[in-house]
Structure formats: structure tokens, C-alpha cells
Amino acid sequence: MRDEEKDQRVRPGRLRAALGALSGVLAGFAALAVAEPVAAAVRPQSSPVIAVGGASIDAAPAAVKDWAIRHFGTNDKLVLQLGILAVLTVLALALGVLAVRFRRAAAAGVLLFGAVGAAAAVGRPDSAGFTDAVPSVLGAIAGALLLYVLVGRLITVRRSPGSATGQAGKSLPASAGWDRRGFVLAAASAAAASAAVGAVGRSLNASRGRDAIASREKVVLPSPGSPARPVPRRAGLRVPGISPFLTPDSDFYRVDTALVVPKVDATAWRLRIHGKGVRRPATYSFDDLLRRELIERDITLTCVSNEVGGPYVGNARWTGVRLADLLAECGVRPPSRGGPADQLVSRSVDGMTIGSPVEEVMDGRDAMLAIGMNGRPLPFEHGFPVRMVVPGLYGFVSACKWIEDIELTTFASYDPYWVKRGWARRAPIRTESRIDTPKPFARPKSGTVMVAGVAWAQHRGIDKVEVRVDDGPWQEADLAAEATRDTWRQWSLPWQATKGGHTLTVRATDRTGAVQTGTRTRTIPDGASGWHSVVVTVE
């Protein structure tokens, strides 16, 4: 065969480069679409985007995680997933352009990214093994093949005059041109097929959670043997803009590392208690917990990532089983009574590990395995079917959601997830307060302006709240009635506001006599400190 008769690639022009980029995007779309139903069959968490996102969260420095929570709040996971998709899109565009010149190398690049997704899936703490790599591998193969085929349609075929003939004996022109019709048909078919396959995958993923949803709908919480105290009438102040005493489920903060909210079937759920000093290891089902005496308590939870004046604190009515009772049945003793374990490591179904001090869990406070929130079964976002709640400790050392395992060990022998990333092993909640109203940069009218908010010092209680206007003296605020020492406490102060700019500052004093410090610290390693201030302009 003569050289001029061989298939040759033509230097890509702008149109061909653009179509190559489009081919790359379609190949990437196909890879993710194919991975979706495969992940539904294997395990939703094995999806490439979810696996890579989880690995990114694990690898990110603590300061980066804190920054993301501070700037994006509970949308941080959505932002991460969108960021991953944006990066994949850019890489797909680049591989598509490359493929116009180097088709095999670009297809190999798609396979390489599949290998990255597979490695991320297999390396997750909750990985089920090498089967978690299957979605990424099959998706990458589909994407590589599609890229190879689409770009093949962009290759120009040159023949010498008379080397081939068309119908009626007519010879093809010297340059037959690239296969426009074939490319359009292949690209359109690939896009439609990918969309259909992706829709099937989403439907399968949704169906996997139906059993869990059905199990939650069937749960009827028994009446607690130890109900919560009636909330005092004056525990909730009638001040517009102040946080309600009980936080609705929909407004309760959510901070965790789960890119996909686990949907656990309560009928299949089990909790194992084992480890150092556990003389009688045990496994409990959800029905086992329902048959036990339940307690009901109003408890305020706080995230360690909460900045001074931040939103990651909420108060709810929790229903559950006393954790200390379960541990005692298993033969566990706290260190003060000779127990060999000083750390309780709780594990979630998504692989999260949280370390809690055994002494505090068993010191008589209302630490519980919660099954209900505000009178209903836990929402999936907040840990259904079972989560831990320990008054007085930040969530990263106590509030394990979707819990399935409790191991007794020591702080010296095991570092849980957050400790490995620079956070403290022990973290009692600091005494803090917040101004809810007026809001920062508000422009109230002169005269009486109600300054109000909440203060908390769980398991110690709030004794006093003071407010300062500019650099003036501290003025004692009116406190709402206290429900329990484990809940936040509302406060208010009528301020005679004068025209101009003013800075309002608040501080609290807990029942031990400790005054909230004005020294500003970061959230890392054991919670932020400092006084909350807002700047307003009185008109």
C-alpha cells in the first residue's frame, strides 16, 4: 500500500479540536453514567464521584475542612461534589482535544482516571473490598471506548484519485473529508444512551433505600419510661428573631463527612459492644432497644466547627436508651472504678470513628443511644436508626451517627478519625453565648431595641449573661427560665439605642463561676472561644 493511500490524521483545526473536546465530555458523561447503575448494584458509596469525594475529605487538612464548613455550611458536600465534576469536565475536555492527535493515549488517560476512582473506592474505611472498584473500572472502560470511537469519526481519509470508486463507477475525491454524519449520529446516540443509563442508575439507587425508608415509617416510638421535664413557660422568650427553645428537625445543623446520607434498614441494623474490659460482649438489634426503658431529654448539641456566634448549635428533644446501662450490662466499668478502658470508640456504617471518654459517658449524665428526635424517629440526616448523644461534649467526640459498633479501648492505643487530623482527644463544650437579634449591620430605629440571643454551657448550666454597648460597662441581661443544665438558655436586654454606629458584645458565666473568655481562638483543636459581637447602625 502506497503512503498516500494510508489513513492519516490531519492536523486538528479549531472545529476538529472543539469536536474532540465535546467527545471528551461525552466520554466522561458516559463513564459516570455507566458507573451509576453498577454502583447501585454493588454499593452506592462505591460510585466514583462519592469515593473520590470521600477520599478528598479524608486527605484534606483540618484547616481546609474548617474553612469549607465556615464558608459553605451544610452545603459543603454539595460544593465538593460540584467541584469534582467541574475538575472532571476540564480533564475530559483536555483528553478530548488530545485524542484528535493521540487517540490511544487519550483513551488510556480515561482508563487511568478510572483506576484513580477504583483506588479511592477500595481505600475507603467502609470499603467492602475489591468489588467497590467495579463501578469505576467499568465506567472507565465505557468512557475510553466511546472516546476512541467518536474521535475516530474525526479522522480524515485521503485517497489518490481512482483508488476507490463510488456508485456508478465514480471515483472519490482526493480528500473524502471526516465523517460528519457518523460523528453526529454517534455523539447523539451516546448522549441519549448515557442519560438513559444514568437515569436507571439513579432509580436503582433510590430503590435501594426504600427498605430503609419503609422501616423508618413503621417505627412507633414507645412512651419513654423517663419522660423529659415539662419545659418551663418562660424558657422561650417572645422576642422576634431569637432562636426557638427547641430547634425543628429541618433547621438542626448537620456537619459530617458523609457525601451520601446512609439509609440503614432498621430491621437489619445491629450494634456490637466489645473490647477492653468488656466482660460480656453483646449485639443488639433495633427491636432490642425499643423493648428497653427509654429516656427522653432536652439536650443542646454543639459542633466543634462552630465559630464564635456561629449556627452549628441546636436544641432538640432526644429519645433513647441510657448508654451507661448497656455498658454496665456488658461488664464495663469506668476508669474511676478500676475499668481498664478510658476511651469508647464508636463506629458508623460509613466508616467514621469517634472517640469518647468512658468516664464522662458513665458519670450519670444522660448519655444515650438516641432513636428519636423531637418526638419522631431520627431523620436519616441525623443518624437513623441510632446515634449517640452525650451532653457536654462536642459532637466530634460524642455524637456518632448511624452507629453500628462500640469498642472499648484506651486513648493511648487508638486515635479515631478527627484525632488523626489534629483535633483534640478530649473536648468538653466551652461556655459560649450568641446575639441572635439585632442581626449584624442591622439598622434599627432609635429608642428601645431588644437585644436577645442564647447561651450554653452543657452539663454545667448558664448562671448569667451580660451585654456591653461599645466600650461601656457590662449590663446583666434577663435570663429565660432554665429547662435543664444540658440545654441552652435564652436571654434578652432592652437597650435604649441612640443614633449612630454601635458595637454590641455578649458574654456568659456558667454555674461553676467561669466567665466566658474574650480571647479569640480558632475552632481547631478543641473549639473556638471569644465574645460574640455585632455592629449596628441606629437611625
Entry summary:
This protein has eleven helices and 18 strands.
Keywords:
five-stranded antiparallel beta sheet, 18 strands, alpha+beta, disordered N terminus, 539 residues, five-stranded mixed beta sheet, 11 helices, 32% helix
Please, what is the average pLDDT? 91
How many strand elements?
A: 18
Query: Radius of gyration, rounded?
Result: 30 Å
Enumerate the spans where pLDDT stays under 50 for 5 or more consecutive residues: 1-12, 158-176
Helix content: 25-40%
Structural class: alpha+beta
Q: Output the strand order for the largest sheet.
A: 2-1-10-5-6
Spell the H/E element sequence.
Answer: HHHHHHHHEEHEEHEEHEEEEEEEEEEEE
Major sheet attributes: 5 strands, mixed
Shape: globular
SS field, number of helical segments:
11
Cα(first) to Cα(last) distance is 89 Å
- Share of residues in strands: 15-25%
Describe it:
This protein is of the alpha+beta class. The chain has helices at residues 14-42, 48-59, 62-72, 76-101, 103-122, 134-152, 180-208, 210-218, 286-290, 323-329, 358-361; strands spanning 270-275, 282-285, 295-302, 313-322, 343-348, 353-357, 368-373, 376-377, 387-389, 403-409, 432-437, 447-456, 462-469, 474-476, 478-479, 489-497, 500-510, 532-538. Strands 2-1-10-5-6 form a 5-stranded mixed β-sheet. Strands 3, 4, 7, 8 and 9 form a 5-stranded antiparallel β-sheet that branches. A 4-stranded antiparallel β-sheet has the order 11-12-16-15, with no helix packed on it. Strand 7 and strand 8 (376-377) form a beta hairpin. It is globular.
